[in-house]
Amino acid sequence: MSGSSKRKRVGVMTSGGDCPGLNAAIRAIVNHASLSYDWEVLGIPHATEGLLNRQSIPLGVHAMNLRGIDLLLTMGGTILGSVNSGDPLPVADQIIEGYHDLGLDALIAICGDGSLAILHQIAKRGGWNFLAIPKTIDNDVALTDRSIGFDTAVNTVTDALNRIISTAASHNRIMVVEVMGRTTGHLALHAGIAGGADVILLPEIPYSITGICRHIDELRERWNRKFALVVVAEGAQEVNSPGFVATSPSHPSIGQYVAEQISHCSQVPLEVRVSVLGHVQRGGMPLALDRILAAALGNMAVDLIAQSKFDRMLAWQAGKAIAIPIPEVLALSPRPLEPTSFLIRTAHGLGTYVGDNPPLPDIDLSLCGESLVCEL
């Protein structure tokens, strides 16, 4: 138990788009703060809206138990609710007052880089004791190897690809699958490799329809493959194009746009179908890695409060939790894929088209250490 005579009151909120593992992080914070330090934990509903309206939910170790079963560990979404639209900065003063009116000694926000930038600005202005835990299926928060929600989303997309490819093979179709990711391709690349995609289109590496069709033709002529699986990140960009703009009802999404172009690019008739996975990628029960990540980062956030160390984001690097100053994280977010990364090289090696970049140079295995473990 803490040596301080004053019982601390800690707030926790979730902000931005939901993802699997948020409740597991809330659980870790509540359990460690309550059991190890005997602190009070208040959940702030709907992020800054809760502070604005002076709303809070008392959270206890056994509050969500059902006959001894801890629902927070496995429940998707967030019991606190979240917001990922609107601009709270015009009412920042009222939000700041909400923190103080609720008597909070510290606030932990589980959020992505967009929410982090806004909350950090408000926290500095209001003199809050503020910490953050990264979550996003996009995995684009800088200086952390993984964010909560990413691993489960990769598995969700991979499962969809496993199902879709059987239909592609049965009907000799080109199946185009659009996945989330905003301006980065981490989700598309990981799931595309795991799901055996023939083409992976990423925001970081411009593609050409000519290159895609050449690859599809090669599959047919060299390997007698009459079907193909194309994974498209929602932010993918065409060579010499400023970016995709949905200007026609015939292609309201990047997936539809790519499918329409593919259908007209070969002398052989191609039957093309599109699946936009959408918000199914955000939902569901968190898998083991996201639960472990949530537990580790939640526990360390509570320990940092005990040590009066604030203005930091908890991150996962090289298999352990560390604390990084938030300004350093924001300066490098969102974190794009490196076009020469080991995983992109892996996709090339598997025969996957990932864009019109020139072939990658030979890798220097001496840079991977004695165990030949290279950065993913």
TrEMBL record:
It comes from the Bacteria. The active site is at D138. Residues 9-305 form the Phosphofructokinase domain. Mg(2+) binds at D113. Its cofactor is Mg(2+). Belongs to the phosphofructokinase type A (PFKA) family. Mixed-substrate PFK group III subfamily. Keywords: ATP-binding, Cytoplasm, Glycolysis, Kinase, Magnesium, Metal-binding, Nucleotide-binding, Transferase. It holds the Pfam family PFK. ATP binds at G17, G112, D113, G114, S115. One of its GO terms (molecular function) is 6-phosphofructokinase activity. It catalyses: beta-D-fructose 6-phosphate + ATP = beta-D-fructose 1,6-bisphosphate + ADP + H(+). It is found in: Cytoplasm. Pathway: Carbohydrate degradation; glycolysis; D-glyceraldehyde 3-phosphate and glycerone phosphate from D-glucose: step 3/4. Its main location: cytoplasm. It comes from Candidatus Synechococcus calcipolaris G9. It is an enzyme of class 2 (transferase). Catalyzes the phosphorylation of D-fructose 6-phosphate to fructose 1,6-bisphosphate by ATP, the first committing step of glycolysis. SUPFAM superfamilies: Phosphofructokinase (SSF53784). The record marks G114 as: Important for substrate specificity. The lineage of its organism: Bacteria, Bacillati, Cyanobacteriota, Cyanophyceae, Synechococcales. Its EC number is 2.7.1.11. This is ATP-dependent 6-phosphofructokinase. InterPro entries: ATP_PFK, ATP_PFK_prok-type, Phosphofructokinase_CS, Phosphofructokinase_dom, Phosphofructokinase_III, PKF_sf. Substrate binds at T136, I137, D138, R173, M180, G181, R182, E234, R273, H279, V280, Q281, R282.
